[in-house]
From TrEMBL:
Source organism, top-level taxon: Bacteria
Spans annotated as Disordered: 116-142
CDD domains, per database record: HTH_XRE
Protein name in the entry: Helix-turn-helix domain-containing protein
One Pfam family, short name: HTH_26
Start-end of Basic and acidic residues biased regions: 116-125
Domain HTH cro/C1-type: 7-62
Organism for this UniProt entry: Megasphaera hexanoica
InterPro entries: Cro/C1-type_HTH, Lambda_DNA-bd_dom_sf
Amino acid sequence: MTIEDKLKSLILSKHKSLRDFCITINIPYSTMTSILKRGVDNASISNIIKICSYFGISVDELSKGNIVPISLVTSPSLISEYTEQEKKLIIEFRMLSPEAQSSVCDFIKFKLASESTKKKPEKDNLMVAESQLPYDDKKTDV
């Protein structure tokens, strides 16, 4: 996937159309399509700065073919704390629509909750399982 494809994907993840994005950041639609067709390297620096500022991504990294949040570039100590996989996940998460981001957060909460139940002692797991059994009104304990 080229940087232009990544950029277009980012734009469309946040806007209903390329035209909508162009109106939002005040760049002519023809200019934006030219950037995506001819390449980021051939675009004017002022347009690249507008695009990067809007998304909070690094101009330097974009010129290298990467979409990286400016916060990761300006905080080198922070960036060294993340694995490559974590950095990629952060970037991809930010490319998602707000609805998709919410779904990812819900999924993570679900996974964390299921992981925490796995860590409980065996006795507790049995108690939970027993409490979840359906009520049997025919059963009589004396």
